Amino acid sequence: MAEAPFTVRRANPRFSFFADAEVTLLDGTWVRGQLSELSSRGCYIDTLEPIPIRTKLRLRISDGMSTCEVHGKVIYMHSGGGFGIFGMGVLFEEMGAEQHSAIDAWLRGLAAHPGKDLGKNSFSQIRG
Question: Is the pTM of this model over 0.70?
């Protein structure tokens, strides 16, 4: 039930997409994570460290074949319900042509193969 407001407000479709994520905060600290959803305007990331809402960050996304770095901001966070995993919605900020091209290429592949995850498939990468 808590998910409905986010679903209703989405202007762009989201696709399941599993990729490694490295989040770098403005103070230089970084957190490893796992992307699980992607859209043209943002993504959903799971991490072992909570990142507060409105935190600006740099995100490096890697699916094993391609890498893209974008700037973004945390717009919402979910607690992992006692499992030590935190999920965050990240809104992408202004992107250059290269970043748009990389995100668009992933999205084209996902749209062409609905229901099939084209990215990595293991959350265990962030545990190590």
Answer: yes
Residue 41 in domain = yes
Residue pair 16/39 in contact (Cβ under 8 Å)? The answer is no
> In which residue are the tokens 């966070």 written?
77
Mean pLDDT over each residue of the chain, to the nearest integer: 83
Instruction: Give the Cα separation of 52 and 48 in Å (integer).
Output: 13
CATH number at residue 74: 2.40.10.220
The residue range of the domain holding 94 is 36-78+87-113
Buried b vs exposed e over 14-51: b needs ≥16 C-beta within 10 Å? bbbbbbbbbbeeeeeeebebbbbebbebbbbbbbeebb
Contacts of 117 (CB under 8 A, 6+ apart): 16, 17, 18
Asked whether 60 and 22 are in contact (CB, 8 A), the reply is yes
Q: What is the pLDDT of residues 8-58, one digit of tens each?
A: 555 678 899 999 999 999 999 999 999 999 999 999 999 999 999 999 999
Give the span between the Cα atoms of 32 and 57, in whole angstroms. 13
Domain count of the fold of the chain: 1
